[in-house]
Amino acid sequence: MTMQYALDNARATASPMLDCLSEILDEETTGLLGGLPLVPTGRYWVPAAGNGSVARWLARTLGPTAEVVASDIDPRHIPPVDGLRIVQRDDVADGPLPGGWDGIPLRLFAAHTSARRDLVHQHAGVLRPGGVLVDQEWGLWSGFVQHSPYADAHDVYQHYQEALRAVFDARGNDATWSVKAAETFEAAGLVDVRTTVSARSWPGGSPGCRLVTVVAAELRDQLIAHGADPVLLDRLPEIMHDPETVVIGNATWTTVGFAPA
């Protein structure tokens, strides 16, 4: 089984989209990882790495004594850096890279494949004793327009989010995965499992708002095919780039679990 992700790294919109995702999520992801007992001589693998920002952070933080691998079905957006090995592979169809790993951070990955439960079990199975599996996903709550000078801003944004959900659902995404991940972690034998949920506001023109316009541009045809009104899609850039618009972004669900020591 391969990952049926709706977005495409080969598109011109891929690089700005991945950069927005990094700007939105990296502070939380690296803050979490930095609070874990990282092993300076350990092995860390970042599947579906996107632009490799998390893997690059691990390589910089741990230095040359660690092994850090970033893999992606299309790794063209991962720049080479010292201490990072880049691998092109289908991280769903090809199964996990051979263990053992001291840490495997998954981000916006598991929810996009129908094999998500098997994915967790497989990745848990290649952790070293005490190794950590992290899963970060956006869940059911996709945020809202907190305030805007445009009277229709809330309705336009919600209209886009509903069409986007329909596009992702058609590709096998499970928007409820974020609330199921912890149970799956425990079923896979991981311990000390915990989940945190966070969201923040984004002013117009910031990464959280730019992401909306980039994704809407890339998926325009698919969004329209799933019920989006092209007139409302055309309203998004003006609303999302206005500095007086403020959006409460998607809720990020982060689940962490450890292989028994």
From TrEMBL:
* Taxonomic superkingdom: Bacteria
* InterPro entries, per the entry: SAM-dependent_MTases_sf
- Gene3D superfamilies in the record, alphabetically? Vaccinia Virus protein VP39
Q: What is this protein called?
A: Methyltransferase
